[in-house]
Amino acid sequence: MSEQEVLYEVADGIATITINRPTKYNALNNTVRSALTDFFKKAEKDDAVRVVILTGAGEKAFAAGADITGFPGIDSKKVRPAALQGQELSVYIESMSKPVIAAVNGFALGGGCELAMACDIRYASANARFGQPEILLGIIPGYGGTVRLPRLVGLGMAKELVYTGDQIKADEALRIGLVNKVFDSIEALHEGTKELATKLVGKPGVALKLAKQSLNNAWQQTLTDNLAFELDSFCQTFDTEDKEEGVAAFLEKRKAEFKHK
Length: 261
Ligand code: COA
What we know:
This protein is an alpha/beta fold.
C-alpha cells in the first residue's frame, strides 16, 4: 500500500496537516491537492479543532510547487481544473473560520509559496527558501501568487520575485514581510509554531473568526465597507458569552475560560 501523501493529526485543539512526499520535495499533485482540501474542510467542521498548522514532511521542503512531472503536453484546457483546484484550496484556507499557521521548513516555491501565503501567519526555519520560479518554466503563478504576493510584500518586490523567479532566504523573507518569524532550526520552528497555536487555542473562537474575516476584508473591499463590517463585528462580539467572561476575568484579575460562544 502506498504511503499517505498528506497526514492529518489533531491534539490539544490543534490540527496539523502535513504534506508527505518528502522525496519529491512535497510537490503538489492532484492527490495532494484533493487531500489537503478534504483535511482543511475536516478541520473547519470539527469543533475540537481551534487552530490549524500546515507544514511539509522532512527537512528539505514545505512544498516545492506544483508537480512538474504532470506538465509535459498539458495545454490550457487541461491545466485549468488543476489550477482552479489550487486557487480554491488557497481561498478555503484564507477564508475558513479558524486561524491557519504555515510552518515553512525548507523550500516554499511556486504553489508551496502560494499555499503559505494563503495561511494567516507564516513561521519559517532558517533553511527556508521562498520564490515564485514559474517564469523559469515559461509560465506564471496560478494559485493566487500574483494576487497575494504584492499584498504581502508590495508591488515592486512582488514584480521582482515573479519576473526573475529568484529564490530568497528566510532572513530576506522576514525583512520584506513575507514571514512573521524565523527560527534557527526546524525543531525550533515546530516548537515555536506549536507555542503560537496553543496561544491561539486559548483565544475566544467567535472573536477570532470575526477578526480574521474583518482583516481579510481589509484587502478586498473599500474603506467604507471595511469600516462598516468592523463596526458590525465589533458590536456582535458584545453579544457573546466569551465577551462577558473575558471582561469579568480581567476585572477579577483571573484567567478567562472561553467557551467560544
Ligand atoms: N515537481 C516535481 N518534482 C519535484 C519538484 C516539483 N515542483 N520539485 C522537486 N521535485 C523532485 C525532483 O524532481 C527530485 O526528484 P528525483 O530525486 O526523483 O529526481 C526531488 O524532488 C529533489 O529535487 P532536486 O531538484 O534533485 O533537488 P535540489 O536540491 O537540487 O533542488 C529545488 C531543489 C526545489 C530547487 C528544485 O527541485 C526545483 O527547482 N524544483 C522545482 C521548483 C518549481 O519550479 N516549482 C514551481 C512549479 S510550477
